[in-house]
Amino acid sequence: MDDKVKFEIEFVIQSSPQLLYTYLSTPSGLSEWFADNVNSRGELFNFIWDGSEEEAKLLKRKSDEFVKFAWVDNEDDSFFEMKIIVDEITKDVSLFITDFADEDEVDEAKMLWENQVSSLKQVLGSK
Predict the structure, then answer these.
(1) CA atoms of 63 and 110, how far apart (whole Å)
(2) What gap in Å lies between CA 81 and CA 67, rounded to an integer?
(3) Is the pLDDT confidence value at 59 over 80?
(4) pLDDT tens by residue, 115-127
(5) Which residues form the START-like domain (predicted)?
(6) DSSP codes, 30-58
(7) Domain count, the chain
(8) 23, 37, 58, 88: which sits with the fewest CB atoms below 10 Å from its CB?
Protein backbone atom coordinates (compact mmCIF):
# COMPACT_ATOMS: atom_id res chain seq x y z
CA MET A 1 0.00 0.00 0.00
CA ASP A 2 1.26 3.49 -0.85
CA ASP A 3 1.86 5.94 1.93
CA LYS A 4 -0.76 8.61 2.16
CA VAL A 5 0.09 12.28 1.79
CA LYS A 6 -0.85 14.70 4.54
CA PHE A 7 -2.65 17.86 3.45
CA GLU A 8 -4.12 20.84 5.25
CA ILE A 9 -6.90 23.16 4.20
CA GLU A 10 -8.36 26.20 5.95
CA PHE A 11 -11.82 27.77 5.78
CA VAL A 12 -13.01 31.01 7.37
CA ILE A 13 -16.31 30.33 9.14
CA GLN A 14 -18.61 32.99 10.56
CA SER A 15 -19.62 31.25 13.76
CA SER A 16 -18.76 31.14 17.40
CA PRO A 17 -16.16 28.47 18.27
CA GLN A 18 -18.67 26.89 20.68
CA LEU A 19 -21.39 26.47 18.05
CA LEU A 20 -18.91 25.28 15.41
CA TYR A 21 -17.48 22.70 17.85
CA THR A 22 -20.96 21.21 18.33
CA TYR A 23 -21.15 20.56 14.58
CA LEU A 24 -17.71 18.94 14.58
CA SER A 25 -17.98 16.75 17.67
CA THR A 26 -21.53 15.42 18.03
CA PRO A 27 -23.31 12.79 15.92
CA SER A 28 -26.30 15.11 15.40
CA GLY A 29 -24.02 18.00 14.39
CA LEU A 30 -21.93 15.86 12.02
CA SER A 31 -25.02 14.39 10.38
CA GLU A 32 -26.15 17.92 9.47
CA TRP A 33 -23.20 18.41 7.07
CA PHE A 34 -20.55 15.68 7.08
CA ALA A 35 -22.51 12.49 6.47
CA ASP A 36 -26.09 11.41 5.81
CA ASN A 37 -26.25 9.92 9.28
CA VAL A 38 -23.85 9.57 12.21
CA ASN A 39 -24.14 7.30 15.24
CA SER A 40 -21.73 6.99 18.11
CA ARG A 41 -21.04 4.48 20.82
CA GLY A 42 -18.44 5.87 23.16
CA GLU A 43 -15.33 6.72 21.13
CA LEU A 44 -16.58 4.97 17.96
CA PHE A 45 -18.50 6.97 15.38
CA ASN A 46 -20.36 5.36 12.46
CA PHE A 47 -20.59 7.61 9.41
CA ILE A 48 -23.20 6.65 6.81
CA TRP A 49 -23.24 7.94 3.21
CA ASP A 50 -25.67 6.60 0.59
CA GLY A 51 -25.97 3.29 2.41
CA SER A 52 -22.22 2.73 2.85
CA GLU A 53 -20.83 2.87 6.34
CA GLU A 54 -17.42 3.88 7.68
CA GLU A 55 -16.34 3.62 11.30
CA ALA A 56 -13.96 6.10 12.89
CA LYS A 57 -12.48 6.26 16.35
CA LEU A 58 -12.39 9.58 18.17
CA LEU A 59 -8.70 9.85 19.09
CA LYS A 60 -8.68 13.22 20.83
CA ARG A 61 -10.83 16.23 21.41
CA LYS A 62 -10.67 19.49 23.27
CA SER A 63 -13.85 21.41 23.84
CA ASP A 64 -14.34 24.35 21.44
CA GLU A 65 -10.90 23.67 19.87
CA PHE A 66 -10.56 20.42 17.89
CA VAL A 67 -11.60 16.84 17.18
CA LYS A 68 -9.34 14.15 15.77
CA PHE A 69 -10.61 10.91 14.22
CA ALA A 70 -8.99 7.84 12.64
CA TRP A 71 -10.82 5.50 10.27
CA VAL A 72 -10.97 2.08 11.92
CA ASP A 73 -10.23 0.09 8.73
CA ASN A 74 -7.07 2.04 7.84
CA GLU A 75 -3.83 0.09 8.03
CA ASP A 76 -1.72 3.23 8.23
CA ASP A 77 -1.61 5.82 10.97
CA SER A 78 -3.49 8.50 9.04
CA PHE A 79 -6.21 10.55 10.70
CA PHE A 80 -8.39 13.54 10.05
CA GLU A 81 -8.53 16.50 12.36
CA MET A 82 -10.83 19.51 12.44
CA LYS A 83 -9.34 22.38 14.41
CA ILE A 84 -10.97 25.70 15.30
CA ILE A 85 -8.58 28.64 15.15
CA VAL A 86 -9.58 32.08 16.43
CA ASP A 87 -7.46 35.00 15.26
CA GLU A 88 -6.25 36.89 18.33
CA ILE A 89 -6.67 40.32 16.76
CA THR A 90 -9.62 40.09 14.37
CA LYS A 91 -11.45 37.30 16.25
CA ASP A 92 -12.11 35.63 12.87
CA VAL A 93 -12.91 31.94 13.25
CA SER A 94 -11.26 29.44 10.90
CA LEU A 95 -11.76 25.72 10.49
CA PHE A 96 -8.39 24.12 9.86
CA ILE A 97 -8.59 20.59 8.46
CA THR A 98 -5.76 18.07 8.39
CA ASP A 99 -6.34 14.90 6.40
CA PHE A 100 -4.50 12.25 4.39
CA ALA A 101 -5.05 10.93 0.88
CA ASP A 102 -3.19 8.93 -1.73
CA GLU A 103 -0.91 11.23 -3.69
CA ASP A 104 -3.05 11.09 -6.83
CA GLU A 105 -6.24 11.78 -4.85
CA VAL A 106 -5.25 14.88 -2.84
CA ASP A 107 -7.05 17.34 -5.14
CA GLU A 108 -10.16 15.17 -5.07
CA ALA A 109 -10.02 14.93 -1.26
CA LYS A 110 -9.65 18.72 -0.95
CA MET A 111 -12.64 19.22 -3.23
CA LEU A 112 -14.66 16.82 -1.10
CA TRP A 113 -13.78 18.84 2.03
CA GLU A 114 -14.70 22.08 0.21
CA ASN A 115 -18.13 20.62 -0.60
CA GLN A 116 -18.63 19.34 2.94
CA VAL A 117 -17.59 22.64 4.54
CA SER A 118 -19.85 24.50 2.11
CA SER A 119 -22.74 22.44 3.54
CA LEU A 120 -21.53 23.25 7.06
CA LYS A 121 -21.51 26.97 6.28
CA GLN A 122 -25.09 26.72 4.99
CA VAL A 123 -26.21 24.99 8.17
CA LEU A 124 -24.47 27.66 10.27
CA GLY A 125 -25.80 30.52 8.13
CA SER A 126 -22.18 31.53 7.43
CA LYS A 127 -21.04 33.05 4.12
Answers:
(1) 25
(2) 6
(3) yes
(4) 999 999 999 998 7
(5) 1-125
(6) HTTTT-SEEEEETTEEEEEETTEEEEEEE
(7) 1
(8) 88
